[in-house]
């Protein structure tokens, strides 16, 4: 191999590590004191990061400090000092510091079973696991689409899914205290990367340190206050010029504007009864309820049984959600709940709220456990140890895919959303989604319905506002569902990912209708695991608010300045952000009032459907029309055998669905996804992006995207030239996207294709190429070889 | 994109159409509705029955739910002529003007529906015992056409037209001869056709020796020549007239080889890699022949083609047989029927159960391996299939599409199809089985090839000049027997039919049906007068025959990024194929490898004959005992081992998730899935760009 010789132990003993040795061993046994309580207060806001690590390895090799140290190296210092001291380009974020490292680690490249790899240092900080290649600067082709926070070989601690160790060719899951240290470390990431680190050439001490460090910091339960989020927020320079135009829905004004925009303000009102979280900690500060609902009733049951407004349709029908009362055996309380609900329904059922369709999502959709189980199976298809595994699955790919049930769950969510849309749009009925906390599948369905019905939510800002409204402020338990703290595996369920997958299906089917691209969705899904944004690291607005101030009693009591994920400039340079926008998106034309009226009319005509309940349709809607016709006009009672006697609801559903799909699409109008078997697909970009076998050099959608961008630019510049043709200005040089210009050699995995195929991949296991190299040998080497001359 | 009816024969009214009059033409006019569009009969075609006020149920995005019109049944086709809806007078060009046409042989199954009875499959033997309310045509090109008859008063018409279609389909679908006969008049009629209409793209038909010469020059294959050994089809009837053979081999040496291959299909070159490798194709060795030493020498010279290494690519090992392809296709067809009962959640495993995508994967994979082989080494790669007429066509074409960017242009692709399929003798007539000659021989090998091409198109959307729409049109055309291209089993048969034709160039002139000449045939009850003149069917390559300008505009891929750098080394300067090197085969130092199951195996016995006598012993295979890792390294440490990497080489992925289902083609019948407007947005930008450029250019200020 030669590799071993090559590695000289040049960084064998860095001064910094001496202190590291026992730090987490101790940490492991360290009583994890509740920091949110008194302990946190006693340390004060600035000290929080120090506290997180206990006596953790200080920033630049500082000796373990006393629990109350104040002279913690300021983050700015770290930033500047670290790299110079260590002569490597370890990039540390404010508030980030090194915990442990190991040198001479071989990062294996998984390609055709080869043992190729790169030597370097494996590093674990309080934010990420990073691999620094020794010769990283050799090929200085800087990745073109670069995340400023997470590098190619960086794994945030929250992004770690599973860690395996290889002992004598056997793979074992690593967790807790380790007795024996593996020769190889395999890290599966939640963004589906797989890293193989070979520790065979690393010093034993370092192996011990790095393995237990990584396992400890990524796998053991954490306290909320120990999230990197807080250390970052404390240390990061004040970010004043954040240009966040996303509506955050944390102010009463946002809700009022939303009500006005959707014309829901006639029947619904914003209430502020929950200020200071008097009603419920699960509910946001401000929310919208039907006008007729009294504040007393809201206060009654901690927010349960209250219909909360999500969105209003142009025809006045509204989408509502409600946390159900826990299902209990029949007794007084349950009777009380029932009475309460009856009262509520009575209040809101009376005009102008004519009909209310109640949909209990816990009955009609898969449970969170099902979703979690399906996703675990599904992701396994893409987390591949080596390529031979991959080949094995090829032949039965489709049945494997089907057996995971993930696509079916996606389909069911989309279907449910279509059903809700049908009630709202087709029957002008209010829909009330009910779920235990109204914060999981309620979020999925209500957001999907809104994306499908309201083109505002198909713009980038609108979509982000929607996620704020329904998910972040709406109280989806990101912390629990993503299991960021590793406190309870049972609560984990990829609900938000499910939503993104559903949206991806829509984007895939109707790309021109969305202002954002699939890359946007992929990047958004990755952002779930980056703990510098507060967006996905709290369970509720209440939790965020109570943790905002580091210490309410402290004199400085400075609020943390959390970043929001919607500020994409934190992660990407402007030129990379271009890839998040759909160049083909056409904004909704702004209409003056008279026009709007007519289009609204048209819109309604296009979509409204006969409400006759007699319509029936067979499953695939093939003979439906004809038979209907006959039943009504000629046959009367006689029922054709072609008709499946399915229930009316289903009929209405397919009727609505078929009818919509037979009309021309208005990309700014209602959008219904196809849900048939062949149409629901795997989100290839997210799931296949790290798999070298799926890479297409010069292929994939990126190839056309380039061309489209080119054309769009040219259109724009020509239009400009047309406009300016009087003034003799020279058409200015086109603002080129440098990354896409040399597109011919881009691969289909482009924004994420950081695995480059270095060699011309031999398609064949070239068992005999050696022979071909030296032909002289050929004649002698094999007895069985019959020289061709003899044949003649 | 083409609004449901992909192979509709659009007969756009030429503005101020000249009063051109064929001797045997007439205009169909609906007596009840003067506004009704006429359709133009093919000469020899006559209307058997018609029914007015028929509703065609359309559920495509860009169409209304149903169109009212007249349904005609002729002796050749079923034609639906929609009444122009009032609003169509202004907009919606293309779509509404479409005629909806199915050639009778393209009808797979006829189903009549009546609410009193079950849906009934109609055959000639089964008498129609009820008045149908709806007629459903299941077409072999995956279309499903549904016609609903008007309720009251028109029942007899409905009955008659249905009967007529049944009868015509059973009896009249007929034979090649019939279709051919029907077109005999074309030649004469078209003499007056203006030349401007003939827009045959600059492609090669490979019917003349000049085309072969031209292509040989383009490839820069200096060691090769065009041999006219088979000019009269006396060496092999199924082979083309001209063959590319090594220059050094004289024709009389060459002729020694024919007898030793099945159907006398000797190895001949298909493509020359600029790096020096050659792609050849051949039939299997004819086991019962008794070659002399000289014969063997010729065979070897053909196989090695001047290289020291010859890799034989066995088709049978990894690729499906035509019978397997047919079995898969039948399953696939059943799955894709609009009334297939597979639940959505079971769809994927049902798709897997057809094994169609496995076959696609196998082909793409094999082609990719061969393309890599050609690029890596200078050697001769011989595709060997026992008959050399099915998968050899497929693989030879795929390899060229992968390796040669010229084959990814429309004209290049069409030339490729001519060379590797049409002229090379793919038995289209048997495989498509359009005339139901023998169901046993039916196998959609060509469809499999189109699907493979579609996969590549899907994976490399910017590398192809043509679009998915083009492939669908090509697929549809293979089920329309108006064209000679896909009607015959080999060039010999095609030429026999075209004996009297002066030259192939005439094809361009004799395109039909653009103009709407008033046809009197119909009124005269379709008496067909055969007069002299060479029978001559057009090629499909003149797309203007069947597709409107708008439709043809969708054939062009607006995102196509042409490879600027020529992948072809001019004049084969880097080709090692000189006459200087000693012939390795003759000097006995050549080695033969077998490419099978994804690996190369050293071959000890090249021929099934030994010392001129046949040895039934199977070829022994020896495998090098080296471990994989070592070879990998040895390969890697010699990065220069691949001589020339052409820019245009595509390296497709063939992993499970990336081999996809061709929805636009297979699911055309099921209406829920019909959509396709989306692709046009790209074309719109391209149009806008052109428009802006023009405007800017027109504005001198």
Please specify the SSE layout and strand pairing.
The complex is a heterodimer of chains A (792) and B (701).
Chain A: H1 3-6, H2 23-29, H3 35-43, H4 48-52, H5 75-86, E1 98-108, E2 117-125, E3 128-133, E4 154-156, E5 160-167, E6 170-173, E7 184-189, E8 194-198, H6 204-219, H7 228-235, H8 252-261, E9 268-271, E10 287-290, H9 295-300, E11 308-312, E12 318-323, H10 332-349, E13 356-360, H11 361-364, H12 368-380, H13 387-394, H14 397-404, H15 406-426, E14 430-435, H16 441-453, H17 460-472, H18 478-481, H19 495-509, H20 518-527, H21 541-548, H22 574-577, H23 593-607, H24 624-635, H25 648-661, H26 684-688, H27 701-723, H28 738-741, H29 769-773, H30 775-781, H31 788-791
Parallel strand pairs in A: 12-14, 13-14
Antiparallel strand pairs in A: 1-2, 1-8, 2-3, 3-4, 5-6, 5-7, 7-8, 9-10, 11-12
Chain B: E1 47-57, E2 66-74, E3 77-82, E4 100-103, E5 107-113, E6 120-122, E7 134-139, E8 144-148, H1 155-172, H2 176-182, H3 186-189, H4 209-219, E9 224-227, E10 243-246, H5 251-258, E11 268-272, E12 278-283, H6 293-304, E13 309-314, H7 315-318, H8 322-336, H9 347-354, H10 356-376, E14 380-385, H11 391-403, H12 410-422, H13 428-432, H14 445-459, H15 468-477, H16 491-497, H17 506-509, H18 549-553, H19 584-587, E15 591-596, E16 599-603, E17 609-610, E18 613-614, E19 621-622, H20 628-636, H21 663-666, H22 680-698
Parallel strand pairs in B: 12-14, 13-14, 13-15
Antiparallel strand pairs in B: 1-2, 1-8, 2-3, 3-4, 5-6, 5-7, 7-8, 9-10, 11-12, 15-16, 16-19, 17-18
Helix pairs in contact in B: 5-6, 8-9, 10-11, 10-14, 11-12, 11-14, 14-15
């Amino acid at each position: 191999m030669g590799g071993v010789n090559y590695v000289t132990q040049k960084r064998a003993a860095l001064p910094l590590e001496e202190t590291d040795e026992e730090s987490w061993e101790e940490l492991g046994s360290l009583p994890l004191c509740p920091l949110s309580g008194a302990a946190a207060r006693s340390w004060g806001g600035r000290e929080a990061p120090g506290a997180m690590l206990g006596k953790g390895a200080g920033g630049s090799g500082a000796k373990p400090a006393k629990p109350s140290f104040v002279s913690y190296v300021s983050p700015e210092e770290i930033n500047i000092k670290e790299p110079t001291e260590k002569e490597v380009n370890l990039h540390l974020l404010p508030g980030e510091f090194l915990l442990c490292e190991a040198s001479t680690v071989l990062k294996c490249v998984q390609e055709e079973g080869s043992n190729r790899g790169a030597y370097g240092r494996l590093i674990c900080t309080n934010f990420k696991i990073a691999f620094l290649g020794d010769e990283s600067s050799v090929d200085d082709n800087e990745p073109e689409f670069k995340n400023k926070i997470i590098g190619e070989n960086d794994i945030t601690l929250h992004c770690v899914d599973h860690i395996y160790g290889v002992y004598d060719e056997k793979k074992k899951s690593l967790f807790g205290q380790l007795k024996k240290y593996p020769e190889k470390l395999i890290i599966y990431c939640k963004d589906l990367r797989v890293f193989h680190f070979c520790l065979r050439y690393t010093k034993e001490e370092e192996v011990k340190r790095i393995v237990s460090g990584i396992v400890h910091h990524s796998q053991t339960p954490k306290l909320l206050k120990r999230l990197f989020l807080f250390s970052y927020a404390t240390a990061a320079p004040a970010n004043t010029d954040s240009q966040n135009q996303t509506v955050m829905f944390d102010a009463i004004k946002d809700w009022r504007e939303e009500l006005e925009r959707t014309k829901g303000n006639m029947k619904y009102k914003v209430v502020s009864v929950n200020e200071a979280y008097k009603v419920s900690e699960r509910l946001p500060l401000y929310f919208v309820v039907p006008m007729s609902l009294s504040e007393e009733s809201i206060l009654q049951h901690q927010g349960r049984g209250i219909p909360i407004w999500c969105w209003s349709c142009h025809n006045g029908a509204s989408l509502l959600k409600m946390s159900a009362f826990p299902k209990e055996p029949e007794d007084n309380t349950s009777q009380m709940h029932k009475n309460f609900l009856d009262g509520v329904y009575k209040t809101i059922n009376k005009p102008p709220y004519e009909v209310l369709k109640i949909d209990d999502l816990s009955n009609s959709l898969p449970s969170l456990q099902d979703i979690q189980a399906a996703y675990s199976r599904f992701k396994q298809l893409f987390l591949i140890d080596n390529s031979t595994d991959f080949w094995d699955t090829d032949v039965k790919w489709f049945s494997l895919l089907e057996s995971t049930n993930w696509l079916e769950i996606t389909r069911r969510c989309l279907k449910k959303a279509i059903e809700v849309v049908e009630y709202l749009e087709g029957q002008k009925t209010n829909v009330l989604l009910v779920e235990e906390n109204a914060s999981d599948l309620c979020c999925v369905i209500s957001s999907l319905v809104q994306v499908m019905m309201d083109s505002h939510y198909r713009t980038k800002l609108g979509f982000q506002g929607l996620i704020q409204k329904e998910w972040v402020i709406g109280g989806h338990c990101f912390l629990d569902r993503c299991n960021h703290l590793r406190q309870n595996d049972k609560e984990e369920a990829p609900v938000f990912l499910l939503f993104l997958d559903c949206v991806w299906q829509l984007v895939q089917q109707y790309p021109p209708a969305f202002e954002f691209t699939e890359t946007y969705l992929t990047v958004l899904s990755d952002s779930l695991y980056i703990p510098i944004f507060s967006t996905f690291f709290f369970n509720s607005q209440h939790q965020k608010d109570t943790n905002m101030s580091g210490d309410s009693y402290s004199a400085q009591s400075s609020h943390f300045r959390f970043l929001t994920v919607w500020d994409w400039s934190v992660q990407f340079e402007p030129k990379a952000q271009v890839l998040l926008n759909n160049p083909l998106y056409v904004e909704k034309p702004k209409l003056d009032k008279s026009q709007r009226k007519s289009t609204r009319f048209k819109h309604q005509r296009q979509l409204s459907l006969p409400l006759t309940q007699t319509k029936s349709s067979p499953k695939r809607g093939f003979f439906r029309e004809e038979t209907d016709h006959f039943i009504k006009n000629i046959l009367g009672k006689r029922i054709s055998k072609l008709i499946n006697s399915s229930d009316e609801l289903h009929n209405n559903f397919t009727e609505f669905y078929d009818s919509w799909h037979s009309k021309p699409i208005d990309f700014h109008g209602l959008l219904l996804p196809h849900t048939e078997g062949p149409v629901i697909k795997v989100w290839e970009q997210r799931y296949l992006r790290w798999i070298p076998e799926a890479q297409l050099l010069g292929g994939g959608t990126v190839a056309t995207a380039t061309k489209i961008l080119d054309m769009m630019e040219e259109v724009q510049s020509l239009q400009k030239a047309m406009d300016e043709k009087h003034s003799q200005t020279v058409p200015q040089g086109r603002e080129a996207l440098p990354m896409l210009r040399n597109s011919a050699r881009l691969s289909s995995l482009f924004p994420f294709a950081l695995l480059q195929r270095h060699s011309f991949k031999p398609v064949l296991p070239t068992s005999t190429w050696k022979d071909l190299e030296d032909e002289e040998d050929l004649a002698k080497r094999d007895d069985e070889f019959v020289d061709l001359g003899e044949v003649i | 994109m083409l609004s449901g009816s992909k192979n509709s024969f659009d007969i756009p009214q030429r503005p101020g159409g000249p009063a051109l009059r064929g001797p045997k033409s007439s205009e169909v006019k609906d007596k009840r509705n003067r506004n009704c569009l006429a359709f133009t009969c093919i000469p020899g075609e006559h209307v058997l029955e018609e029914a007015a006020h028929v509703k065609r149920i359309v559920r495509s995005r860009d169409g209304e739910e149903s169109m009212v019109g007249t349904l005609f049944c002729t002796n050749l086709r079923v034609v639906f002529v929609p009444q122009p809806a009032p609003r169509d007078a202004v907009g919606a060009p293309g779509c509404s003007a479409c005629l909806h046409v199915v050639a009778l042989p393209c009808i797979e199954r006829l189903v009549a529906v009546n609410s009193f009875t079950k849906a009934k499959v109609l055959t000639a033997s089964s008498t129609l015992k009820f008045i149908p309310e709806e007629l459903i045509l299941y077409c072999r090109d995956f279309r499903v056409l549904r016609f609903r008859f008007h309720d009251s008063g028109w029942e007899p018409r409905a009955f008659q037209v249905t009967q007529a279609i049944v009868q015509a389909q059973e009896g009249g679908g007929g034979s090649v001869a019939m279709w051919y006969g029907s077109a005999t008049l074309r030649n004469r009629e078209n003499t007056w056709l203006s030349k401007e209409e003939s827009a045959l793209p600059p492609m090669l038909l490979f019917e003349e020796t000049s085309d072969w010469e031209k292509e040989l020059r383009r490839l820069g294959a200096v060691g090769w020549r065009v041999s006219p050994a088979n000019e009269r089809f006396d060496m092999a009837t199924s082979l083309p007239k001209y063959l590319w053979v090594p220059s050094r081999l004289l024709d009389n040496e060459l002729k020694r080889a024919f007898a030793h291959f099945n159907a006398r299909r000797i190895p001949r070159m298909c493509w020359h890699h600029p790096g020096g490798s050659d792609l050849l194709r051949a039939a299997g060795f004819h086991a019962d022949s008794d070659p002399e030493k000289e014969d063997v020498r010729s065979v070897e010279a053909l196989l090695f083609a001047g290289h020291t290494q010859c890799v034989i690519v066995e088709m049978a090992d990894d690729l499906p047989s035509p019978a397997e392809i047919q079995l898969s296709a039948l399953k696939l067809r059943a799955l894709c029927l609009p009334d297939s009962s597979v639940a959505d959640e079971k769809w994927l495993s049902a798709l897997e159960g057809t094994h169609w995508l496995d076959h696609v994967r196998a082909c793409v994979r094999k082609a990719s391996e061969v393309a890599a082989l050609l690029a890596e080494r200078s050697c001769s790669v011989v595709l060997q299939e026992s008959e050399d007429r099915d998968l050899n066509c497929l693989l030879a074409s795929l390899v060229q599409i992968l390796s040669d960017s010229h084959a990814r242009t429309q004209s290049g692709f069409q030339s490729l199809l001519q060379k590797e399929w049409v002229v090379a003798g793919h038995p289209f007539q048997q495989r498509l089985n359009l005339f139901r000659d023998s169901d046993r021989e039916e196998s959609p090998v060509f469809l499999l090839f189109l699907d493979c091409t579609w996969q590549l198109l899907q994976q490399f959307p910017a590398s192809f000049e043509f679009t998915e729409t083009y492939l669908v049109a090509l697929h549809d055309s293979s089920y329309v027997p108006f064209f000679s291209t896909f009607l015959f089993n080999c060039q010999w048969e095609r030429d026999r039919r075209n004996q009297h034709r002066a030259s192939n160039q005439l094809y361009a002139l004799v395109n039909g049906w653009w103009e709407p000449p008033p046809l009197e045939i119909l009124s005269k009850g379709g008496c067909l007068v055969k007069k002299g003149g060479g029978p001559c069917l057009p090629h499909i390559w003149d797309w203007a025959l069947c597709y409107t300008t708008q439709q043809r505009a969708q054939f062009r891929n607006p995102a196509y990024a042409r490879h600027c750098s020529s992948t072809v080394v001019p004049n084969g300067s880097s080709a090692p194929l000189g006459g200087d090197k000693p012939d390795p085969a003759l000097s006995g130092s050549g080695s033969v490898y077998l490419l099978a199951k994804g690996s190369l195996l050293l071959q000890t016995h090249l021929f099934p004959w030994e010392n001129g006598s046949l040895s039934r012993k199977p070829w022994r295979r020896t495998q090098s005992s080296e471990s994989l890792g070592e070879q990998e390294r040895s390969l890697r440490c010699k990065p220069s081992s691949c001589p020339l990497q052409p820019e245009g080489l595509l390296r497709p992925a063939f992993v499970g998730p990336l081999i996809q289902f061709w929805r636009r083609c297979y699911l055309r019948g099921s209406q829920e899935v019909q959509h396709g407007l989306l692709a046009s947005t790209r074309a719109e930008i391209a149009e806008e760009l052109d428009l802006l450029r023009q405007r800017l250019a027109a504005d001198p200020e």
